[in-house]
Amino acid sequence: MIVKGKNVVYRLDGKLYHCPMDITMKYIGGKWKAVVLWYLKGGTLRFAELKKRIPAITEKMLSIQLHTLEADGLIERKVYGSKPPVRVEYSLTEFGKTLIETLNAISKWGRNLGANRGELVELQEK
Amino acid sequence: MIVKGKNVVYRLDGKLYHCPMDITMKYIGGKWKAVVLWYLKGGTLRFAELKKRIPAITEKMLSIQLHTLEADGLIERKVYGSKPPVRVEYSLTEFGKTLIETLNAISKWGRNLGANRGELVELQEK
DNA sequence: CTGAATCCTCAACGATACTG
DNA sequence: CAGTATCGTTGAGGATTCAG
């Protein structure tokens, strides 16, 4: 706990944090991580399935996010088969699942805003 | 609402979002905004008071964050006095207060992680 | 006291092509 | 299928100085 009036910080993985917000943001911040986690919250997904759900992401960025999330212990990567085409599945770890409540709160706020102030658009099939 | 199987997105301020996570992250993403909002959640604060609570931020970045948050309608800026030194106070707007639940969730997760995996450090006074 | 202005760096992000 | 390699771009963030 942060003690009022004291100059106290957290050290985590050798890095100092003055605020818990910072810590969480290290894990889900950036342009893509929260979105990837959001879709994995629904269950195991393969690379191409994630790409399909997040059309705007490039394969490179998706690859980087997945490796980062795995290194952070939030997701698990399972490879099936040794010769291409291989099958790779991604899913939340138990640690990653502790984020679900937080992810829900973030999504809920965005959904409300989109519903109240935004406009729904149906895209044409290409 | 996102309709399953349909290619539906939100349009908000002229920008398209495929995912509610994206929307929220536009408002609280980046290195500083969530932290600033977190401290303003506790009540009205002046520029120097915010700076004191977020030692790592530069005045430039704090200034930018505050203007961005104000432009997004999340915080309110009140100026007292016309001749320097002026007094400027920042506080959450009603719209900004709708984020409190989300901010709490984010902070809670970070606090738990800091408590479980991190280490508490007491800094020396300079 | 509260910033704005300037200049700078660097990491995140992106487009495209290629591969085990 | 699931990426990696390479190169290019962009913009967030930072250091410093100056101003109402």
Automatic annotation (TrEMBL), chains A, B:
Keywords: DNA-binding, Transcription, Transcription regulation. The keyword Glycosyltransferase does not apply. GO terms for molecular function: DNA binding. Residues 19-118 form the HTH hxlR-type domain. Pfam families: HxlR (PF01638). PANTHER family: TRANSCRIPTIONAL REGULATOR, TRANSCRIPTIONAL REGULATOR, MARR FAMILY. This is HxlR family transcriptional regulator.
